[in-house]
Amino acid sequence: MTTKAEFLGRIREQVRRTPGRFSASSARRPEHPAAEAETIRRELAERWPETLGSFRREFESVGGVF
Amino acid sequence: MKDTFLQEALTIATTKFIGLRREAFAGFPEGEALRDQARAIKEATLQELDRHLETLIANVERLGGHVHYAATPAEARSIIVDIARRTGTRMAVKSKSMATEEIHLNEALEAAGITPVETDLGEYIIQLAHERPSHIIAPAIHKTKGQVAELFTRELKRPAEPDPEALTRIARGELREKFLQADLGITGANFAVADTGTIVLVTNEGNGRMVTSLPRVHVAVMGVEKVVPSLTDLMVFLAILAKSATGQKLSVYTSLVQGPRRAGELEGPEEFHLVLLDGGRIAQIGGPLREALSCLRCGACLNVCPVYRQIGGHAYGYTYPGPIGILLTAMMEGTPAVKDLAHASSLCGACADACPVRIDIPRMLIDLRREVGDRKIAPWSERVAFTLLSRLLRHPRLYRLAARAGRLLQRPFAGSGRVSRLPRFFGEWTRTRDLPPVASRTFQERWASDKDLRA
Q: Of chain B's two ends, which shows fewer C-beta atoms within 10 Å, N or C?
């Protein structure tokens, strides 16, 4: 069976000798995740009546009884 | 290609997928920028794959899970069968997973006396029919509802109407019992989030959730390239995956699994195992197929491929069909396995346009064709033919001479505007296809003599 050291060693070796195809970065992590989550929560709450109305229209358009 | 049912089923399904995908992106102006971002995240992750995998492993273990390392499909099978035996498993329920198809897990489980039960509706149909999936996300795409009804009637010993809702109800009734009886749940992973040790499953039927929460033990199998650094990166992929695959804004279920059940939790397995699979992937981190490691397995390239749309997935002969499937097969089985498949593409570029992470599939197919030639993998007759053609195309005089010779030599065989039968060695080519005849005047001859053409 392949060990963790062998497995990761092979990956490390490939990564080490392979230049990146282009300059790239992963997505920016939020600096203040709690604050950002709170903002999203507040925005969703503000849009709630509009969202509910939209859901109702779509629901009733396919025969649903709201 | 003569199977009219197959042609009908393929045309209906792929056309529907293409339309839904187009609509989904038309109503999503951020889509193009997110595709670029997704590609950048994949590339950035590959550049530090070792670090992200170490983080993932540490977090899975911190949550109480076990991580296993499989260099080959045989190792992966052995690891999973060992887990099944140790935990006294008699039945294993599975959520749809191409990775487990790739390692031929069902056959290994059956050989060990364990009954595998596919719980995705398409996979369930395929398992009943003793076939293999013919599409990455729609495994039973080649079957019409009438064929499925006949299959259910025959295999489940109960009458079934060719109505999708009725057929789904039958499958649901059969599978509910299995979820409750199974000791082991087996899934793949659409993504694994390094920062949190989370395995992400994107499904539409809810079976993934049942497979990961009802049995005592959960095993997830994933290729090493499925890791993403953070939940923020995951959001980018979730925004484009379902749109590319089925034209949905999001899939119906996005399940985030974090290790085994913890104290106080009401559901979840007692044991969680993550099997990291190489299977040819690691060698391609620095190899010519590196870009294919970015594939999300959405199947969009299959739906738009003019070759796939005609022949379906089984004709490719390996686990992964379609244009991306040729590259993945080369990655997993080696270039000789795709010496013919590398030519099963018109190189029209539709696959690259449809790919949510903009993988340049046609370029890699051309590179594969070149490798097949350079390494002398192709049959000698094919190599001779292409060498001759290459010389003709580089020498105009020879080309003109060959065109004249062709016009003369084709006379006994050309009729009704096509060459449908060639003698001896060349007959293999016309056995399944017609050739257009050499034109009575080449373009150069017409250009030289025809004033209207030049006007």
A: C
Interface touch A12/B50, C-beta < 8 Å: yes
- Distance (Å, whole) CA A22 – CA A11: 19
The burial class, CB within 10 Å (0-12 / 13-18 / 19+), for A36 is exposed
CA distance A5 to chain B (A): 10
For residue A5, which residues of chain B lie inside 8 Å, CB to CB? Answer: none
At B140-188, the pLDDT tens digits run 999 989 999 999 999 999 999 999 999 999 999 999 999 999 999 999 9
Q: What is the pLDDT of residues B33-68, one digit of tens each?
A: 999 999 999 999 999 999 999 999 999 999 999 999
Q: Domain B4-13+27-283 carries which CATH code?
A: 3.40.50.10420
Full-model pTM: 0.88
Q: List the one residue out of A29, A26, A22, A23 whose CA is nearest residue B38.
A: A26
- The position carrying tokens 């390996």 is B318
- Check A27 against B233: CB less than 8 A apart: yes
Considering only the beta carbons, identify the residue of B54, B230, B283 that sits closest to A29. Answer: B230
**Separation of alpha carbons B214 and B25, rounded Å:** 36
| Cα angle B75, B279, B70; round to 5 | 30
Per residue of chain B (455 residues), what is the pLDDT tens digit?
667 778 888 888 899 999 999 999 998 999 999 999 999 999 999 999 999 999 999 999 999 999 999 999 999 999 999 999 999 999 999 999 999 999 999 999 999 999 999 999 999 999 999 999 999 999 999 998 999 999 999 999 999 999 999 999 999 999 999 999 999 999 999 999 999 999 999 999 999 999 999 999 999 999 999 999 999 999 999 999 999 999 999 999 999 999 999 999 988 999 999 999 999 999 999 999 999 999 999 999 999 999 999 999 999 999 999 999 999 999 999 999 999 999 999 999 999 999 999 999 999 999 999 999 888 888 887 788 888 888 989 998 998 898 889 888 888 888 778 888 888 777 877 887 788 888 888 888 888 888 777 77
CB contact under 8 A, A1 and B79: yes
For residue A12, the chain B residues in CB contact (below 8 A) are 50
* CB nearest B45 (choices: A7, A26, A29): A26
Contact flag A24-B47 (C-beta cutoff 8 Å): yes
Contact criterion met (CB < 8 Å) for A2 and B70: yes
